[in-house]
Amino acid sequence: MKALVKKSPEPGLWLENVPTPQISINDVLIKIHKTSICGTDLHIFNWDAWAQKTIKPPMVIGHEFVGTIEKMGSNVHDFKLGDLVSGEGHLVCGRCRNCLAGRRHLCKDPKGIGVNRDGAFAEYLAIPVTNVWYCDTNIPQFPSRNFVPRIGFWWAEFDRLTSGNQLHPFELLRANYCLYSFSITSSSSAPNPQREVGG
Ligand SMILES: [Zn+2]
Ligand SMILES: [Zn+2]
Question: Which domain holds residue 85?
Fold first, then answer.
């Protein structure tokens, strides 16, 4: 399959042919329809100090996406083939003290999709079913792929307010996307959001 890869430890990305990911019994294979670019992806593209200490090339990047379920492991019973889904980009260990106490956001060993393991800027992505989120098909795919950035923006805004850090211009652009997405999904007066945003 085709994928955008951080192939070597230097600025840039490469469009490569890579093997389609295999799934285990608890995984879902997602055919990617649309993706969003996150600030994280720009760090990786630019190969800044954070990326240099975090990313181990070669790595398929990208963690904000929407797509349909192409294949499921034998232990997956919550979804059906063809379901429209997005996903949480942090995979947790499930075995550490915090995970077992239900505080999975404090896992001692989280793995980022497109950061610590292959990501979504590809034709297919394989992730555990515990990270898969069902998307209502009445909502256009445009905001669904922004599922994570919407949270990311509010986090960036929180960070700005509490630390005095200024938002990167890209964050502002993303905020506009988020607010626009929110307005079309929450507005009953939008006659045909699917057509207006190109679905
Ligand atoms: Zn992100
Ligand atoms: Zn854990």
Answer: 2-195
Residue 53 maps to which CATH number?
3.90.180.10
Q: Which ligand is nearest to the CA of 104?
A: 2
* Residues 130-174 pLDDT 10s: 999 999 888 776 665 555 545 544 554 455 555 554 444 444 455
Identify the active-site residue in 20, 33, 35, 40: 40
CA distance 2 to 23: 18
User: Which ligand minimizes its atom distance to the CA of 111?
Assistant: 2
Instruction: Provide the number of structural domains found in the chain.
Output: 1
pLDDT tens for residues 83-93? 999 999 999 99
| Ion ligand 2 contact residues with beta carbon within 5 A | 92-93, 96, 99, 107
Q: 107-116: long-range contacts at Cβ-Cβ below 8 A with a sequence spacing of 24 or more?
A: 112/40, 112/63, 113/62, 113/63, 113/87, 113/89, 114/40, 114/41, 114/59, 114/60, 114/61, 114/62, 114/63, 114/89, 115/40, 115/44, 115/54, 115/55, 115/59, 115/61, 115/63, 115/89, 116/54, 116/56
Cα 137 to ligand 2 centroid, rounded to whole Å:
32
**How far apart, in Å, are the Cα atoms of 141 and each of 36, 70, 79, 193?**
11, 17, 18, 10
